[in-house]
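Bug #77: duplicate submission created two jobs. Keeping one. Sequence:
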Amino acid sequence: MTSEQQQIIDRTVAYVQQELAHAEGGHDWFHIYRVWKQALHIAQAEQANVFVVSLAALLHDIADAKFHHNDDTIGPAKAQAFLLTQDIAQDIVHHVVAIVENISFKGGKTQRSFHSKELDVVQDADRLDAIGAIGIARTFHYGGYKHRAIYDPSIPPNLEMDVTQYRNSQAPTLNHFYEKLLLLKDRMNTDSGKVLAAARHQFMEEYLHRFYKEWEGEA
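Kept job's structure:
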């Protein structure tokens, strides 16, 4: 990146840190930081535009819909408003905003309306932060934030949810593994993301095996 682009990245970091200063712990600045750093590693391997990837990773959760009455328009609008204050070409602004609009899992039933290598990279990085050790921690943190039960054997996972059901679900946290986390390995876009996801997926399977044994007092 050029020195001018790096300055824009630095200002974007400062903006995101300020905006997410009081965010829920699974969707705070540190989530953004992890996704950003992971996206940079994948971008290098996949030969993606690092400037676009950086901006999109930093702004991808600037206003997550689940914390804004499920309004999907707020995040992209905030990202665009910020980018227009910077000296950035219009095609890059449009590209970054399109990534923010299309990155969310949304129950896994929504098709992307935009495609680019950079979206593939940032979406993979975001999904990697939802699985593995960090993903497990984030899942239970959010479940506690929403006052959900940890596990209830009488409530099975719902694998046929639409977007509205997914977002309004009050099911036990463990169900989320089956409704999202364990599905992500096979939904990665890049070769780099697929390799990283496989190891994190295996860790989650080992965790669940141990969880059920401890639940029954067998370990």
